[in-house]
Every structure is written in C-alpha cells, then in structure tokens.
Amino acid sequence: MRTPNLPESNHPIIKSLFHFSDADLLTLFQRHPEQGKYFTAIFCRYSPIVYMLISQACKSPVQAEYLYAKTWRHIFYEFGSLDLRVSDEPGGSVLTLQNWLINTTAVCVNGMDLPPVESIQYNVEIASPPLWCYLQQALDLLPPLQRIIVLMSQTFGWSESRIAAYLQAEGEEISPAEVRQLLEDGCRRIQDTLPADIHTIYLDQPVGVI
Prior knowledge:
Number of helices: 10
Oligomer: single chain
Distance between the termini: 25 Å
Largest sheet: none
Order of helices and strands: HHHHHHHHHH
C-alpha cells in the first residue's frame, strides 16, 4: 500500500524541529500542550514505520487509513503521561521512542475492531492524523448537544432541518434556526481551541470540515 503523503513535513515550523531528539520532542509536547508542532514533528518522523506495520495487517486501504489515524490518536493521548525512563521490559532497560511506537502500534493492530469499509468516514487526505487528533480534542470540549450537531453537520452532511427533526424525535425541543446558531458557535469554538501552530501548518481557512 502507498504510504500517505506528508506535506506537513515540509512546513517551516516542522522543518525547524528536525534537529531535536525524540526525547526532547516528547518533553516539549508534555510541557506545552497548547502547541501542536511537537506531536506533529514526531508524527512526521515515525509515520512511515507506523503505516507500514498497519498496512501489513489490513487488506483494505480504507481500513488501513482508519486504523492508522486511530493508532495515532491513541499515541497522542498516551504521550501525555509517557515516561521513557520507566520501562516494562525485564531488567528495567529504557525503551526508545521508536520501540515504544512499534509496540503500541502492534497493540492497536491486534486490539482494535475495524468497522466495515462502507461505514468509515475518515479520509487521510482531508485530515492528517495530527490535525484529526487536535480537532477531536477540541470537539470533545463542546457541550454534548452542540457536539452532536457539529458531528451531524460536518461529518454526515446533514442540513439544519434534518438535524432538528432528528433531535426533536429524540425529545429535544429545537428549531432549525437554533441548530444553525449552535453549529456556527461550535465551529468557532473549535477554531479557537485548536493550537495556533496547527492552524498555521494545516489550515488555509477557518475550520469547516471535521
């Protein structure tokens, strides 16, 4: 399978971090959660290895891309507390970040249930895993009703009227105009929550697709 293209690896912000060690990038990521460039730099460095391992386990390119994104999302959340000085290996030897990523990818490949191809909405060409991770993080901060509205609109392409009708059937008293207001406010809140450097690296215009 063809390795996904990584245009972000040529961005000046990411190229300026090439000289940092894995340990430095991980430490900077943990110390500066408001910046997305450190995670993105690690992603660019190890994306080919992770994708190669995943592609060998998936027959469908669509499922491979989905598992690739889900794996990087798992890695993203694990990075927050990862300490490479603490090892599960016999004898207490220190893991390298590369070995940890390989082991974690294997766990994801063996442990994640993949949905049918026709139900997968993710497209790596639209949202590279780092962008997807930070969008998901911003989305998770929205109130539940607003999050559902944003997902229905941006992921499934539902109109305000269809969203309102669905929510009304679920017992929610809401009009299409109120749906539109919540949707616009939700997209603005997501845009404001995204790290500024993620905006610079990935987005040429305000957030419109999730």
